[in-house]
UniProtKB/TrEMBL annotation, chain A:
Source domain of life: Eukaryota
Keyword flag Ubl conjugation: no
Stretches with biased composition (Polar residues): 186-195
PANTHER family linked: LUNG CANCER METASTASIS-RELATED LCMR1 PROTEIN, MEDIATOR OF RNA POLYMERASE II TRANSCRIPTION SUBUNIT 19
Name of the protein in its database record: Mediator of RNA polymerase II transcription subunit 19
Keyword Transcription regulation: yes
Function: Component of the Mediator complex, a coactivator involved in the regulated transcription of nearly all RNA polymerase II-dependent genes. Mediator functions as a bridge to convey information from gene-specific regulatory proteins to the basal RNA polymerase II transcription machinery. Mediator is recruited to promoters by direct interactions with regulatory proteins and serves as a scaffold for the assembly of a functional preinitiation complex with RNA polymerase II and the general transcription factors.
Region (Disordered), start-end ranges: 124-195
One MF annotation (Gene Ontology) recorded for this entry: transcription coregulator activity
High-level lineage: Eukaryota, Metazoa, Chordata, Craniata, Vertebrata
Pfam families: Med19
Family listed: Belongs to the Mediator complex subunit 19 family.
Keywords: Activator, Nucleus, Transcription, Transcription regulation
UniProtKB/TrEMBL annotation, chain B:
Native organism taxonomy: Eukaryota, Metazoa, Chordata, Craniata, Vertebrata
Provenance organism: Atrichornis clamosus
Protein name listed in UniProt: Mediator of RNA polymerase II transcription subunit 10
Cellular localisation: Nucleus
Subunit note: Component of the Mediator complex.
Gene Ontology molecular functions: transcription coregulator activity
Function: Component of the Mediator complex, a coactivator involved in the regulated transcription of nearly all RNA polymerase II-dependent genes. Mediator functions as a bridge to convey information from gene-specific regulatory proteins to the basal RNA polymerase II transcription machinery. Mediator is recruited to promoters by direct interactions with regulatory proteins and serves as a scaffold for the assembly of a functional preinitiation complex with RNA polymerase II and the general transcription factors.
Ranges that cross the membrane: none
GO biological process, one term: regulation of transcription by RNA polymerase II
Highest taxon of source: Eukaryota
Keyword terms, alphabetized: Activator, Nucleus, Transcription, Transcription regulation
Family: Belongs to the Mediator complex subunit 10 family.
Length: 195, 134
């Protein structure tokens, strides 16, 4: 059978019984066996980003930026993706506002309504990690301030906690009964690195 | 390289600060603040002009779209860089492992084939010459 086109050149190396022998592919200095981080001088960058813990929130990267920047962009239509997908149609020049145009910005005196006041408020920096379970969105005016509701909430929490603990214990007992041979909860980190 | 970013960063910071001050003026407006308000409105325009001028210096800068996903979720964009480096290293280790395993397999195979077909393997080694550089 005739070999497929293009393979004749590859089979020039065939000698003797080695009719399947082909020329070896070209060799390169840079392969996957090279440490590419070192090769591209990225050790400093690697240690900087992977050596230390990088904080999760956008406000940690831009601490001086005012406003609630840690909220998703979809909440207030401020996402960058929407800007790319639907770029605003505008002119190419920036002309200063004339006196006539500025008359449109004559404002009434007095404070803004509460709903508009949130624009420049930044959430206070939370130091205590255990407080993250409370509401994340900070309302400047709490809806209810009477002390009775707090007591009720605390009582409810106390009543629920022992019930939750009992349920958890029951679930654990059931799991242990039904699966004596299984190792139980598997490890979340799979060892995949080859060295 | 960093200087062109410094200029843009400075213009952006001034622009944002101007907007922030605008917000403060507007949140509890007094008639005497009208002049200041007008100045800040015009500074918005000039600020945008300055930012627009920075485009020429940065026309060759590319930003991966995935970073925007992080920013839109309110996450630190440095996490994207971190995850890129971690994925690159993991893939590097994986490929290195494959290469090392294939090399070991090759030498083992040649070794065993030489035991069974010594003459043919001698011819094979003569054809191949030296082993390709590892």
């Amino acid at each position: 059978a005739a070999p497929p086109p293009g393979e004749d050149a590859a089979r020039k190396a065939a000698v003797g019984p080695f009719y399947l022998l082909r020329e070896l592919p070209g060799t390169t200095e840079l392969t996957g066996s090279t440490n590419l981080i070192t090769h591209y001088n990225l050790e400093h960058a690697y240690n900087k980003f992977c050596g230390k813990k990088v904080k999760e929130k956008l406000s940690n990267f831009l601490p001086d930026l005012p406003g609630m920047i840690d909220l998703p962009g979809s909440h207030d239509s401020s996402s960058l993706r929407s800007l790319i997908e639907k770029p605003p149609i505008c002119g190419s020049s920036f002309t200063p506002l004339t006196g006539a145009m500025l008359t449109g910005f004559r404002l009434h005196a007095g404070p803004l309504p509460e709903q508009c006041r949130l624009m420049h408020i930044q959430p206070p920096k939370k130091k205590n990690k255990h407080k993250h379970k409370q509401s994340r969105t900070q309302d400047p005016v709490p809806p209810e301030t009477p002390s009775d509701s707090d007591h009720k909430k605390k009582k409810k929490k106390k009543e629920e906690d022992p019930e939750r603990k009992r349920k958890k214990k029951e679930k654990k007992k059931k799991k242990n009964r039904h699966s004596p041979e299984h190792p139980g909860v598997g490890s979340s980190q799979a060892s995949s690195s080859l060295r | 390289m960093a200087e062109k970013f410094d200029s843009l960063e400075e213009h952006l910071e001034k622009f944002v600060e101007n907007i922030r001050q605008l917000g403060i003026i507007v949140s509890d407006f007094q008639p005497s603040s009208q002049t200041g308000l007008n100045q800040k409105l015009n500074f918005m325009v000039t600020g945008l002009q300055d930012i627009d001028k920075c485009r020429q210096q940065l026309h060759d800068i590319s930003v991966p779209l995935e970073v925007f996903e992080y920013i839109d979720q309110g996450r630190n964009p440095q996490l994207y860089t971190k995850e890129c480096l971690e994925r690159a290293l993991a893939k590097n280790e994986q490929v290195k492992g494959k290469i090392d395993t294939m090399k070991k397999f090759k030498s083992l195979l040649i070794q065993e084939l030489t035991k069974v077909f010594p003459e043919d393997m001698a011819k094979y080694k003569a054809i191949r010459g030296e082993d390709p550089p590892t």
